């Protein structure tokens, strides 16, 4: 046996002993055989061990501002307008140096982003844990949802996932993540039984082996003032296709979805009216 193979074998033995230790100490559950090298697996096991040690040794929470070392900063009303962008860059750099990251899904101007960081994020509390390689990531829209963006996400998911017959996360049926099957309504706003909703969508999807999305263009998004209800109007061109046949059935024309905010975040489709599928 050469030295490299012997080294890997010893590392595998150490990893198995480490797994047993983590199972005994923290109830860790290791299932399946990964394809990573023994060395990388050892690094991962050590990361888990360190995480569990810190997590179980402290329940202390501190503000983001404290976590990044309590840096000096000015409130937005103390800055000149032409100073804000530069100060924002500085604050973001300090956050990154301390493994705190902030992203946005949509365009957010520098003034609002600086205000959000210094007035909201800095006072937000997180676990006081500092593990090499671990970062804490925030998304602006999780604090300030963008209704238009969320509605576009629901629309996009319906055509890129549901209409592509992707399987749901639980493996039971098609992906209807953004379809509210429990509170669906028909054209005259009457409730539609959940079983009926699922069966009707499944029957439409199962008519063909797959769908060819030629185009799906958003025409207009209308959101009520309270942001409790919305309608997205669109134009689609979809072909229903079969694997072993050249036969094609085309669905082309205008349609619309009605949506409302989901209790889990984002917006759900509660009424479907499109060529080929209507309630």
Can you summarize this structure?
By secondary structure, the protein is an alpha+beta fold. 38% of the residues lie in helices and 24% in strands.
Topology:
Elements: H1 3-26, H2 38-57, E1 61-63, H3 64-67, H4 84-97, E2 100-103, H5 110-121, E3 125-127, E4 136-139, H6 140-143, H7 147-162, H8 194-206, E5 210-223, E6 230-242, E7 245-261, E8 267-274, E9 277-278
Helix pairs in contact: 1-2, 4-5
Overview of this protein structure:
This protein has 279 residues and is an alpha+beta fold. 38% of the residues lie in helices and 24% in strands. The chain has 8 helices and 9 strands. A 5-stranded antiparallel β-sheet has the order 5-6-7-8-9. It has a two-stranded antiparallel sheet with strand order 1-3. β5 and β6 form a beta hairpin. The radius of gyration is 26 Å and the shape is extended. The mean pLDDT is 88.
| Helical content (DSSP H or I, runs of 4+) | 25-40%
Total count of helical runs of at least 4 residues: 8
Low-confidence stretches: none
Strands, total number: 9
Strand content: 15-25%
Q: How are strands sequenced across the largest beta sheet?
A: 5-6-7-8-9
Shape: extended
Keywords:
279 residues; five-stranded antiparallel β-sheet; 9 strands; 38% helix; extended
């Amino acid at each position: 046996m050469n030295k490299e193979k012997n080294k890997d074998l010893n590392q595998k033995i150490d990893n198995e002993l480490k797994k047993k230790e983590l199972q005994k100490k923290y109830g860790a559950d290791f299932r399946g055989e990964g394809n990573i090298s023994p060395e990388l697996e050892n690094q991962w096991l050590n990361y888990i061990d360190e995480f569990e040690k810190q997590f179980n040794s402290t329940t202390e929470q501190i503000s983001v501002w404290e976590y990044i070392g309590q840096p000096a900063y000015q409130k937005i009303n103390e800055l000149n307008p032409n100073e804000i962008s530069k100060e924002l860059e500085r604050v973001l750099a300090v956050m990154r140096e301390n493994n705190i990251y902030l992203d946005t899904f949509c365009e957010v101007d520098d003034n609002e982003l600086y205000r959000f960081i210094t007035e909201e994020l800095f006072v937000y509390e997180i676990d006081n844990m500092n593990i090499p390689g671990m970062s804490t990531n925030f998304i602006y829209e999780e604090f300030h949802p963008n209704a238009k963006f969320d509605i576009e996400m629901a629309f996009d998911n319906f055509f890129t996932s549901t209409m592509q017959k992707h399987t749901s996360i639980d493996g039971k049926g098609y992906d209807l993540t953004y379809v509210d099957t429990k509170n669906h309504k028909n054209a005259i706003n009457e409730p539609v039984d959940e079983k009926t909703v699922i069966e009707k969508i499944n029957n439409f999807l199962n008519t063909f082996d797959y769908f060819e999305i030629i185009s799906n263009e958003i025409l207009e998004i209308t959101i009520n003032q309270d942001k409790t209800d919305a309608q997205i109007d669109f134009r689609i061109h979809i072909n229903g296709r079969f694997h072993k046949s050249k036969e094609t059935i085309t669905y082309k024309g205008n349609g619309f979805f009605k949506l409302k905010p989901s209790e889990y975040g984002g917006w759900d489709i509660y009424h479907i009216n499109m060529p080929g599928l209507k309630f």
